[in-house]
Amino acid sequence: MSEKKAPDILGLEEIKKFLSVAKAVNHHWYSIWAFAILTGMRSGELHALSWEQIDLEKNIIMVDRSYDSNAKKSGPTKGRYWRTVPINSSFYKLIIDLKNGPKKAGNEYVLPRSKDWDNGDQALKNFLKSIGIKPIKYHALRACFATQMLGSGVPAPSNENWRMEKIFNNGHLS
Length: 174
Fold this sequence. Notes:
CATH superfamily: Intergrase catalytic core
CATH class: Mainly Alpha
Radius of gyration: 16 Å
CATH topology: hpI Integrase, Chain A
Number of domains: 1
CATH architecture: Orthogonal Bundle
Distance between the termini: 20 Å
Structural class: mainly alpha
């Protein structure tokens, strides 16, 4: 029986460099990448994310839908479950910047609607390579969320009720 290879992910310093350079050059994928790393949400969940799912008073995002690129419509999440994701202070600022941004008037969606959304994997790999960071797959940004949480002091799992496992739906990064 062959073991599944762990995905390549970015370390904390690589995450910091990646996001700071993407923000500095105003890369059109910056907010999408930042959301992926800071929330652990899947690509389809990010694509379907609307303002009604964000509760800034409780500092949570309700993840309850996902965009299906094959069907070209939003529906339930992959596991047909909902979960909440916490919003920390630096992430809060990004959300406010997006909410007050120039393209937000009357737009129900939080993140930019990129016509090349399905090419996110290649855009990420190209950008990382251009700034001297090992290329990773777009889906690995979910695992980078776990790295970032652990690096910021969230304790490693010690029982079934660990918060990060709940965010990822029983710890699965699928």
